[in-house]
Amino acid sequence: MGRTARWFGAAAVAALGTGVLAAPALAYGERSKTEAGKGGQRWFNLGHAGLQLDEAGKAKDRFLKALELGHRPGATTYNVACSYARMGDGDRALEWLGKAREAGFEWAGHVRHDRDLDSLRGDPRFQDLLREARKQQHAGHGWRRWLDQWMEHEDADSEPGEDEGAEREY
User: Fold this and answer.
1) CA distances (Å), 73 to each of 23, 51, 64, 76, 125, in order?
2) Looking at domain 3-153, does it have CATH number 1.10.30.50?
């Protein structure tokens, strides 16, 4: 399969949010997975197509295949959780959210607003996760923590009232 065909498939799957391309992208992905091998990215894309088509069970199976192939373990595991949530299996969804965290997925910014997890919002265990996500976002982590510390240092170096509302040159 040529580079153009692979790009078209990825672009079509990426455009699924419109709903118009969901079925053609899924058909393309189903055909191309047998023609060009079984890469994890392809299974991952097919999983997203399944979610867009409200086929959460198929999506879960496709994400599991992508995970088996080692494709983006954190994000793929998170999407398995989303699939279970869309299937109405809250226990498995919460289990896989935990696995996504263990795999290093930065889920704190996702769980609060991801519509795929709406079926979990009434579950007290999910509410605990949301509280933890808020704490993580406020505490910062990785480069965000460094940036927060740098900004605090910058603020401490300025005189009270200095540069308020003014632009700085960097």
Assistant:
1) 26, 18, 10, 5, 23
2) no
